Amino acid sequence: MKIYVCRRKLAQWRGTLSVLFVIFIVYMTNFATLYIVPTPIGNLDDISARAIEVLKQVNWIAAEDTRHSSRLLQHFSISTRTLSLHDHNEDKRTAMLVQRLKDGESVALISDAGTPLISDPGFVFVRRCREEGIPVTALPGPCAAITALSASGLPTDRFIFEGFLPVKTQAKDNQLAELKERTCTSVFYEAPRRILATVKDIARVLGDRHIVVAKELSKTFETYVSGTPGDVIDYLEADAAHQKGEFVVMVSPAQVNLSEISAEAMSLLTTLCDHMPLKKAAAVVADHYDLKKNALYQAGLEAKDAKETD
């Protein structure tokens, strides 16, 4: 028993010492901090006071497009030096910026709009900073996907962000087909030149599934169109101007038929959930009773909610 206690304490001490060692290394090396700074998605007033202060205080601003970001920086009288970091130069820029951070020069990463890395460059850079022990701090702020979802009227308790759908038809169809039985809201971005074709693809693959399309978020002509894909197509085709702007497309969850689940299957699911995660329990019951995993998972969620309410 004494040996067990000593081993457990030794493991705790090792964990504590590991954390202290990392803190010590960062302190002794004097690495500067990388700041992930969200910028407005349309309304300049949405930038935070903290974001402005960070952008003014850092040594460098790494921007997706320096020409685009210059308007924002000039508006808030930010004169910090800028350099570009985009999909085509991220590997090269990462090596240079990591070295500058190690030399004690702080960096702020921004995208053209919204939160960096969310369907924007920066993943390679941030991952490398983490690997090198460089402090990384993310500021909260604007994000088109979250902004649109919160006002969409679709379920927000569970959702998946898909980024941009593939351009090629077959790859896009394959990804849309995954939504047929998905029991959570799906969110993705789309460009104005492809929005009409994409909604038509949704209609072809998903039928009359309820969708919401949002554009011009936080701007004067902010627009949400809600209904079937056919309703959205009618809106887009009614006026060429309706196809302008950056779009957020949200697809409602699949409707699950819970009536096909027998009392025996539900009883087994409830029992298994006491011993394993719901997702795994649903898979076991689905295999045993030849049912759909999504239906069982949804039934498990509803049973859990009902139990918590009681």
Beta-strand percent range: 5-15%
Which of globular, elongated, flat, extended, rod-shaped describes the shape? Answer: globular
CATH topology of the largest domain, by name, is Cobalt-precorrin-4 Transmethylase, domain 1
The low-confidence parts are 1-5
Assign the CATH architecture of the largest domain: 3-Layer(aba) Sandwich
Ends apart, CA distance between termini: 43 Å
| Rg computed from alpha carbons, rounded to a whole number of angstroms | 24 Å
Beta-strand segment tally = 10
Structural class based on helices, strands and sheet pairing: alpha/beta
Number of helices: 12
Determine and state the CATH class of the largest domain: Alpha Beta
Which range best describes the helical content: under 10%, 10-25%, 25-40%, 40-55%, 55-70% or over 70%?
Answer: 40-55%
Mind summarizing the main beta sheet?
Answer: 5 strands, parallel
| SSE arrangement, N to C | HEHEHEHEHEHEHEHEEHEHHH
Mean pLDDT: 90
Relevant CATH superfamily of the largest domain:
Tetrapyrrole methylase, N-terminal domain
Could you explain the architecture of this structure?
The radius of gyration is 24 Å and the shape is globular. 47% of the residues lie in helices and 15% in strands. A hairpin with a 7-residue loop joins strand 8 and strand 9. It folds into 3 domains: 120 residues, Tetrapyrrole methylase, N-terminal domain (Cobalt-precorrin-4 Transmethylase, domain 1, 3-Layer(aba) Sandwich); 107 residues, Tetrapyrrole methylase, C-terminal domain (Methyltransferase, Cobalt-precorrin-4 Transmethylase, Domain 2, 2-Layer Sandwich); 52 residues. The N terminus is likely disordered. Strands 3-2-4-1-5 form a 5-stranded parallel β-sheet, covered by helices on one side. The chain has a 5-stranded mixed β-sheet with strand order 6-7-10-8-9, with helices on both faces. It has 12 helices and 10 strands. With 310 residues, it is of the alpha/beta class.
